[in-house]
Design a protein that fits this description.
Order of helices and strands: HHHEHHEEHHHHHHHHHHHHH
Number of domains: 2
Strand content: under 5%
Largest sheet: 3 strands, mixed
Strand order of the largest sheet: 1-3-2
Helix content: 55-70%
Number of helices: 18
Radius of gyration: 28 Å
Shape: globular
CATH superfamily of the largest domain: Ammonium transporter AmtB like domains
CATH class of the largest domain: Mainly Alpha
Number of strands: 3
CATH topology of the largest domain: Ammonium transporter fold
């Protein structure tokens, strides 16, 4: 009787296990070890002999186990280097580029603003910025599930563009922090030489929170509106350059023109430092663009060569444009051309071919030259260091031309069903949304700052210089 009961028990157990495995397979769950577990429990309950348990059929996985994600040490090393390169773009690259363009009495104020803004945003990114931009899925913003980087450890992984290939989440967080930091630092150039130091910091907090984070999520985050629409922005044409340029242009209007603007000489005090800064920007931009590939593979090399040739083409076209219109090509123009080329190729660097990149660079040089001359005169704003003329115009051009030169027939990486017309509409929508969103947020943020602490220094402070008045020191001994 005991043998009969044992046989019935084992039979029922096997039938239950097989039924559960089938049900789990139907619902997409893993039933790999279920039959063996049920058999073992039944045998233990009836105190069956070892021979009976051995007689049970071996478990067969219902589904093949998913392969473990791959983390390549080369990818990790490259992303660490790319992150360092982007930091070099900001300090000292952007700081020196901007610092050389202002008058000597404001040199340190610009260096200080770039350095402290970048540092401030890096900390805010770790506290809540990363969570709101990449912490979850959402149409316009993510969530606070990763507030204070909750749940992130040395074992946490972030996705790349290849299935099954990941990188440590910490390095992804750090890399994206540098993008947020440089975007806010770019705005400094629009209102240089006349803004309160505290106003710069408070504005940066507000604009970062309500403009940068939503735009970054919409373009790059899971479920983001523009990402789901199919907008292409490989390394930040909309997120970084158009976003910052619009905030800077609004700031130039709201702070008003510098004392003596258009009447007194306001020439750059050191084009040597500007050239050094532009050179550091170009070198660091390889981390900015090629690093956005998130892997050390062929995609990174495409972004790398495009960053090289587009920038070189823009230097040549800006210099040629100056020679034709002014009779001489200037060092300031060549350096500005380099930045214009870097800006324009940023959204396209991972999806266009090198010949397309050269065309983008050539057009960027000519168009951004007009942006800092003819367009600036038309707008009537004292955009101190031509943030909109270079980053706004170059960013818009690059974002739109991404929709053209990504076409496979023009050397791009688009698929067989790629449509230039359809993609151009999507790209244009991304540009318009970014321009409007950033402008509205910037306007409100400037108004709040003006009511709380005031935006502009006094005329006396402005005439003496912000180095002494705001920081109590000078850049050069007299």
């Amino acid at each position: 009787m005991k043998k009969v009961l044992l046989s019935l028990t084992l039979g029922l157990s096997l039938l239950m296990g097989a039924g559960l495995a089938a049900a789990q397979t139907a619902t997409g769950t893993d039933a790999a070890a279920t039959p063996a577990v049920v058999v073992a429990q039944a045998a233990a309950a009836t105190d069956a002999a070892p021979a009976a348990a051995e007689a049970a059929p071996a478990a067969t996985p219902a589904e093949a186990a998913a392969p473990a994600p791959t983390v390549n040490k080369g990818d990790v090393a490259w992303m660490m280097v790319a992150t360092i390169l982007v930091i070099m773009m900001v300090v000292p690259g952007l700081a020196l580029f901007y610092g050389g363009l202002v008058r000597s009495k404001n040199m340190l104020s610009v260096l200080m603003q770039v350095l402290v803004v970048f540092s401030l945003i890096s900390v805010l990114w770790a506290i809540y910025g990363y969570s709101l931009a990449f912490g979850g899925s959402g149409t316009f913003i993510a969530n606070l599930d990763k507030l204070f980087l909750k749940g992130v450890t040395v074992d946490s992984l972030a996705d790349t563009f290849s299935d099954g290939v990941k990188i440590p989440e910490y390095i992804f967080i750090a890399f994206q922090a540098t993008f947020a930091g440089i975007t806010c630092a770019l705005i400094v150039g629009s209102f240089a030489e006349r803004i309160r130091f505290g106003a710069v910091l408070l504005f940066s907090v507000l604009w970062f929170t309500f403009s940068y984070l939503p735009i970054a999520h919409m373009v790059w985050g899971s479920g983001g509106y523009l990402l789901d629409k199919g907008a292409l922005d490989f390394a930040g044409g909309t997120v970084v350059h158009i976003n910052a340029a619009m905030a800077g242009l609004v700031g130039a209007y709201m702070l008003g023109k510098r004392v003596g603007y258009g009447k007194e000489a306001m020439a750059p005090h050191s084009l040597t430092l500007t050239m050094v800064g532009a050179s550091l920007l170009w070198v660091g931009w390889f981390g900015f663009n090629a690093g956005s590939n998130l892997e050390s593979n062929g995609g990174a090399t495409l972004a790398f060569i495009n960053t090289l040739v587009a920038t070189a083409a823009a230097v040549l076209s800006w210099a040629a444009g100056e020679a034709m219109t002014k009779g001489k090509a200037s060092m300031l123009g060549a350096a500005s051309g380099a930045v214009a080329g870097l800006v324009a190729i940023t959204p396209a660097c991972g999806s266009v071919g090198p010949m397309g990149a050269i065309i983008i660079g050539l057009l960027a040089g000519f168009l951004c030259l007009w942006g800092v001359t003819g367009l600036k005169h038309m707008l009537g704003a004292d955009d101190s260091l031509d943030v909109f003329g270079v980053h706004g115009v170059g960013g818009i051009l690059g974002a739109l031309l991404t929709g053209v030169f990504t076409a496979p027939g023009l050397g791009g990486t688009g698929g067989d069903d790629f449509s230039i017309g359809s993609q151009l509409l999507i790209q244009a929508e991304g540009v318009v949304i970014t321009m409007i969103w950033s402008s509205v947020v910037a306007f409100i943020a400037y108004k709040i700052v003006d009511m709380v602490i005031g935006l502009r220094v006094s005329e006396e402070d402005e005439r003496e210089g912000l180095d002494i008045r705001s920081h109590g020191e000078t850049a050069y001994s007299r």
